[in-house]
Amino acid sequence: MKNPFDTPEREEFRAQLKAFVDKEIKPYVNDWDEKGKIPWDLHQKAGALGVWGFGIDEKYGGLGEDDNFLRAIYNEEFAKCGAGGVGAAMGGRMISLEPIQRLCSSEIKDRVLKDIVTGKKGSSLGITEPGGGSDVANMKTSAKRDGNHFVINGSKTFITGAMTSDYFVVGARTGGSGLKGISLFFVEADRDGFSRVPLDKKMGWWCSDQATLYFDNVRVPAENMMGEEDKGFIQIMENFNIERMCMCASSLGMMKVCLEESIEWAKTRETFGKPLIQHQVIRHKLANMSSKIDALEALVNNICWNMNNGEVPVAEISKAKFFATKELEYCSSEAMQIMGGAGYLRGNPVERIYREVKVMAIGGGSEEIMRDLAVRQMGY
Ligand SMILES: Cc1cc2nc3c(=O)[nH]c(=O)nc-3n(C[C@H](O)[C@H](O)[C@H](O)COP(=O)(O)OP(=O)(O)OC[C@H]3O[C@@H](n4cnc5c(N)ncnc54)[C@H](O)[C@@H]3O)c2cc1C
Question: Domains of the chain (ranges plus CATH)?
Answer without folding.
Answer: 8-121 (1.10.540.10), 123-231 (2.40.110.10), 234-377 (1.20.140.10)
